[in-house]
Amino acid sequence: MTQRVHDVALPVASEEDDHGRTDARRRQRRNARLAAFGFIAPVVVYIALFFLYPIIRTGELSVQDYRFQSYVTGEAPCIGLRNYAWLFSSPLFPKVIWHTFLFVGVSLLFQFVIGLALAVFFSRRFPLSGLFRALILIPVFEDGQQSMEELLKESGAAAETYQRGQELTATVMC
Question: Is the pLDDT of residue 173 over 50?
């Protein structure tokens, strides 16, 4: 459709063109929203699996009478808030809380001081500085399982407990 104004042909937008552009914009917005959900979905699944599920499972276990036999039998009767009542009525509870806060505070203080000192030291260039930086990073890349096995080989009782746990895990997984 065209309209003549002063002998010049001007295009006139029809209702069909308007609807076509509106539909295209809607499709584009919908596709953008779907793409956003596509990028967000893996993070939501990750958070649900590795953060929310353990929190919910821990809450569930905290109201059950879960003992070592429960791992084998699979039975853990619900006892409500009795575990919490026992915990808060225990004379050791305030000591445990105090020691936990003390341990965390002192650990963080030493980690911060030692980490800052190492960072300042290694920020300077000196002979073999690259080698020392690499040596500090080796434990970061080392396999944790291997480290745990090496540590437990030195302790007989801990090694037996670890071995039983591995056997129990193998039994449950099969």
Answer: no
